[in-house]
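Can't paste images in this forum, so I'm doing it all in text. The chain is below; anyone willing to post the predicted structure tokens underneath?
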Amino acid sequence: MTVSRAGFRRRGNYALALLSESVRPMLRGVARTFSSGPSTPPVQWRRGLIIGHSHIGDVLYRTCSLDHLQAGLPDCRWDYLTTPTSAPILSNNPAISAVLPFSFGDDSARHSRESFHLLRAARYDVVLCTNAIRHAYDFALSAALGIPNRVGFGNKGYSGLLTLAIPTEYPQPLAGYFRSMVAGVVGGEATGQLRPRVFPGAADRARAMQHLQGLDLDSSLPLIGCTATTRQMVGAWPLSFFASVLSEVVAMRPVNIVLFGAASDEASLRRIADAVPSRVHVAAGALDWLGFAEALRQCDVLLATDSGPRHLANAVGTPVAFTRNLAVSRVETGAYCVNELDLAPPTVEYLSSSALSSAMGAVSARDAAERLLSLLGRRRD
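Text version of the structure:
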């Protein structure tokens, strides 16, 4: 399979991918020695494993296409390998048979020896290596597990470790890569809307409603949620930007504002609240992920950084105005869901650390506030 140059930013990684294709027969032979049996067509698969990066956003990207995967291969049960932190986001998902919280971090290859043996003993028919970046680790893991059918993006190199190499276009929204893989497995075109899916229960809704009622909100006013913190090390927008946008919002019209975050975010959220010339409520660490999803469902709009809550709001149909990470691809991390709006400059991407502050500072807080308020009344249920 031809390696796609568009899939690589670093020349060195592209060179390694080309080198891997030159030794494809050797990689195929190595993988075959570990395999528990011959490869088979998708209609014969009965038990599959899905692996990929495990940040909340990454997992939610995959949920956009899980129902299509289930419908296309109804006789195959799918397990999902992720972290204990991200596992709850897949609770009650009808397309998933079991959630395996074995991974230590973002990469599926980071897990204990015991969990490796459990995965190998499960004797999966197929593994979907869903990453479009840092994919070689997953290919190697799937071969070491002895899984006879190994699916991944073959035009990123190392295709000798795969039995079904899926070609895909670069770049496209991150959620679109898994959609392309599912289409390649079940047949058909990689089309259809991308929207994450979560399945909160009645108890999750009750917890969310109880928490929001305890904030003493004015039920006659719109509710604007805000998630301004992120775990991303590079490209995070300053807290002052969110404080400025919210200050402009309250100058334009009366609203309820709730700042959501983890317990460790409380000090940062308090700084934002103190900078806004109106009452702002802080809700830090009060809800688990599915309870938080139900709280976001009650919001009329969410102002968010590019992190898990953005995708969670997309899942429950709450309109989102978000600040894209300017250090990475604008196509991959830009708007992918019909109810969201990207507040970042439309052509800016891959900025260096020194250029980020200038680009972020050029975005008008007043303009961002107007765009945020334009989303009121545009729920998508």
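The domain at 5-186 is CATH 3.40.50.2000 (Rossmann fold). The chain has two domains: 5-186, 202-373.
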